[in-house]
Write a structure and sequence with these properties.
The complex is a heterodimer. Chain A has helices at residues 2-7, 63-73, 88-100, 116-121, 151-158, 160-173, 185-199, 210-223, 235-246, 248-270, 281-291, 304-310; strands at residues 10-12, 21-24, 37-41, 78-82, 85-87, 104-107, 112-114, 126-129, 134-137, 175-177, 180-182, 300-301. Chain A is of the alpha/beta class. Chain B contains 14 helices and seven strands. The chains are: A alpha/beta, B alpha+beta.
Chain lengths: 322, 496
């Protein structure tokens, strides 16, 4: 269980995550111009589900593949999202699938799209948050479900100064664990930036050649040598003292903060690169900053005006209602 | 019509010569019936005699009937009398494609054993691309010669019936003209419908002409009232604190007034029956999901005071967290009394303050056993490590971090919202101007498109009128021969 938690960067809402299910939306719920829609949602009592299987508990590994198969097999006018979130990579994966199928996405009234769900949502080429629905973002973390006996935490507890500095670097540039590479903040920022930038362009497509150029630029940047600024700052001394006094609880709290600090460092490094990343890279970077404006133990619920101004949602211009 | 028809294959070359020789051999016999022939000739000057030149046959047309008569000594008399023959048409349907079409079979009537009457159809299957050559085909597929060859004309079997040919050509022309009229009328109807629909849509928008496009009003900036989560910069820190105090209060109320007294006892009773320790422990520990959750009934400031007192003023955590502690207590005193009927600027009204998983676990170690005792569920916490001084320090630090983290995040979020609102508002006039530009462009485009459509509709109306005129012209009936017209001499190799 611990290993599973450790290898997945989890984006999970404070509302307990239920499950991810694919099923047709009841035609009675569809807006007038929509003929069919697919639910991509958590399993839970809010939908009348009595029992939820393990694989349906949240955005889980393999969901993007399942969704691609579903969209290949059946035509839907829209995909409706309602989820508390889950694995970040799967949010990105589902977003890619939605973009590939040029889907319109909607969070229908009285439903929530939280965390990974909001990342997936950005893959829709037309995106609607209905009145009464909510869209809540927050930071990603490796340490959401860490417990008091966690060996990583205990390692830091045994040698706080070295442990914290090591983790600050790992969380920034990534690290390998049992032949698997865990992305650092820079790699996550690079992926998220491209994802958000595509979302801000018509039909999710950057100008010709731009995506390949940016992918290359961002990859080279993410792989370039760097170290966390944490090792030489005054915060390290304060944190070491806190760990020594308050134990594993402080370690978890500090590592989660280091994750966000790593993302902030990545954002700060990306800012000077924006002119070379083409149109709408700047608002894309603001989306990442907004995502990380809330720690994972809470969420930032974005208002309609913020969603509209920042480009999370699309608005249909109706000449008859000027 | 300059195209020349090819020879009928059934009677070409040696076969023709053989047919002709056979027919010429009938001459002696024909002489014997000269009297009868003279009578026939007397009947109509227009009908050629069955003589050497016609190879003792007579082919005539009258109305839609082609009649073939032959002499009783004609070498093929028996075959014709017994089996009759077939009238066949040969014509081109395009530059290269020639078709052969049977127009019908005839056998002699009982009262006239040497005459075959073929009824011509009103039309042939193909569309004519030239003249129609008729010939009579024997049952064995040989063509019946009806004239002798001469130096200028080798065609011995083909003949033409000009007025019928013109009539069927006219039938094709009429059909084509009718199709053109139908198609043009259909296009006109569709065009009229589209123009009317487009006119109605444009009228609805007030786009009645190019001049009206310049009068398009600037759309109002469709911004509603300032949303409740948009707060002036100066007020944002206080609003953030109030939001977070409200979340702490929500957690406290949820646990002390709902979850612990109402929900938890029922759940534990059900787990007690099955001694389901894991589920019971999970439900007990859920009490500590909210930051500042402690002993039942202990409100957060009281709890913080108690922990600080228990740890002592010299404790490192107490000293390190002194500023945070004072800040939280001050905010509590300031905002907790103001929360009745409060709708927070951020998040849901009943949202509580979460914290880390290890903080929750640590709080459970500290306060879980007492809670289990109160609920008579000690069995569910057996073996749970007891809370320690270190747990108290962890608890204090993580609760205060959760609170200050909430305030920091809320300040950032309020800033994001106000910045975006300002941007949305300041860009509103520019957006409205762009929208107007779009509408003016759209208006001009639509008005011009409508004008083009009306021109096209007028052209279609003229086309329909022309097509109807053509149809009337080509529909004038063509008269066929009203008395027998000899065709033996009208070869397909020459113009009629």
């Amino acid at each position: 269980m611990r290993a599973l938690v450790a290898v997945a960067v989890v984006l999970l809402g404070v509302v307990p995550a239920e499950a991810l299910k694919f099923e047709s939306v009841d035609p009675k719920l569809l807006p007038p111009s929509v003929k069919s829609a697919l639910w991509v949602r958590d399993c839970g009592r809010a939908f009348g589900d009595k029992q939820c299987a393990d694989g349906e508990e949240m955005f889980s590994t393999g969901d993007s593949g399942r969704l691609a198969r579903e969209l290949m097999a059946h035509h839907y006018d829209e995909v409706w999202l309602a989820s508390g979130g889950g694995v970040l990579d799967e949010g990105l994966g589902i977003g890619d699938v939605l973009r590939r199928f040029q889907m319109t996405v909607r969070v229908p009234p009285n439903r929530e799209c939280v965390s990974s769900c909001t990342v997936a949502f950005l893959g829709g080429v037309f995106r609607f948050i209905d009145p009464g629905a909510s869209y809540q973002v927050h930071a990603a973390s490796l340490f959401l479900d860490t417990d008091l006996d966690d060996p990583w935490m205990k390692d830091v507890l045994a040698n706080p100064k070295t442990g914290l500095v090591e983790w600050a670097d790992r969380l920034l540039v990534g690290f390998d664990l049992r032949r698997q590479h865990l992305e650092g903040s820079r790699e996550s920022a690079a992926q998220l930036l491209l994802h958000c930038q595509k979302a801000l362009h018509p039909l999710g497509q950057l100008p010709a050649g731009r995506e390949a150029t940016n992918r290359d630029l961002l990859q080279r940047w993410a792989r370039s040598s760097t170290t966390s600024t944490y090792r030489n700052g005054p915060q390290l001394t304060i944190d070491v003292a806190a760990v020594q006094r308050e134990g594993v609880v402080a370690v978890q709290q500090i590592l989660m903060r280091l994750e966000r600090d790593g993302m902030q460092q990545a954002i700060d490094e990306l800012r000077p690169m924006l002119p070379s990343l083409g149109p709408r890279a700047e608002p894309a970077l603001r989306m990442i900053e907004t995502m990380y404006s809330s720690r994972i133990t809470g969420t930032a619920s974005l208002s309609y005006e913020t969603l509209l101004q920042m480009g999370y949602i699309t608005k249909i211009f109706d000449p008859l209602k000027p | 019509m300059t195209r020349k028809l090819g020879m009928v294959r059934g009677c070409e070359g040696a076969a023709v010569r053989r047919c002709v020789r056979e027919c010429e051999g009938a001459r002696g016999a024909v002489t014997r019936v000269a009297g009868a022939l003279a009578v026939a000739l007397a009947m109509s000057a227009a009908v050629l005699a069955q003589d050497k030149d016609t190879l003792w046959t007579s082919v005539t047309a009258e109305g839609t009937t082609i009649a073939l008569t032959w002499d009783k000594n004609h070498p093929w008399d028996a075959i014709l009398a017994t089996n009759g023959a077939e009238l066949v048409a040969k014509y081109f349907v395009d530059a290269r494609r020639e078709v052969t079409e049977s127009l019908g079979r005839a056998t002699p009537a009982r009262r006239d054993q040497r005459t075959l009457r073929f009824t011509l159809p009103e039309a042939v299957r193909g569309t004519l691309a030239g003249p129609v050559c008729l010939f009579i085909q024997m049952p064995d597929r040989r063509a019946l010669p009806i004239r002798r060859p001469d130096n200028r004309n080798g065609d011995t079997v083909g003949f033409r019936y000009d007025s019928w040919e013109r009539r069927i050509r006219q039938a094709g022309d009429t059909r084509a003209a009718q199709e053109r009229v139908t198609s043009a009328e259909r296009s006109l109807t569709a065009s009229a419908r589209i123009v009317a629909g487009r006119e109605a849509t444009l009228a609805q928008r007030g786009w009645t002409g190019l001049a009206s496009c310049d009068q398009v009003a600037v759309p109002t900036a469709a911004l509603g009232p300032k949303p409740s989560d948009v707060v002036d910069l100066a007020r944002q820190p206080d609003v953030a604190r109030r939001v977070c105090v409200n979340r702490v209060v929500n957690g406290f109320l949820l646990i002390s007034e709902e979850y612990v007294p109402e929900t938890l006892p029922k759940l534990l009773a059900s787990y007690a029956a099955s001694k389901d320790v894991d589920s019971a422990r999970s439900r007990l520990s859920a009490v500590y999901s909210a930051a500042f959750a402690g002993p039942v009934g202990a409100d957060p400031p009281s709890l913080i005071h108690a922990i600080v007192e228990r740890l002592g003023a010299d404790n490192g955590t107490v000293r390190a967290r002194a500023v945070q502690t004072a800040g939280f207590l001050k905010d509590w005193d300031t905002f907790a009394p103001t929360l009745k009927g409060y709708t927070p600027e951020l998040g849901d009204p009943d949202e509580y303050l979460g914290w880390t998983s290890t903080a929750k676990e640590s709080a459970f170690h500290l306060f879980g056993p007492d809670l289990a005792r109160q609920l008579k569920a000690e069995w569910a916490v057996q073996g749970l490590p007891p809370g320690s001084v270190s747990d108290l320090e962890s608890y204090l630090g993580s609760a205060l971090d959760a609170y200050t983290g909430c305030v920091d995040d809320s300040v950032k979020q309020l800033r994001t919202k106000s910045d975006n609102w300002d941007a949305l508002r300041s860009a509103a006039p520019q957006r409205a101007a762009s929208a107007r530009e779009f509408l003016v462009r759209e208006c001009r485009q639509e008005v011009n498109a409508l004008s083009t459509m009306k021109t096209e509709r007028a052209a279609l109306e003229a086309q329909v009128a022309r097509d109807r005129q053509t149809l009337a012209t080509v529909s004038t009936p063509i008269r066929l021969a009203d008395k027998p017209l000899a065709l033996n001499g009208v070869s397909c190799a020459q113009s009629p």
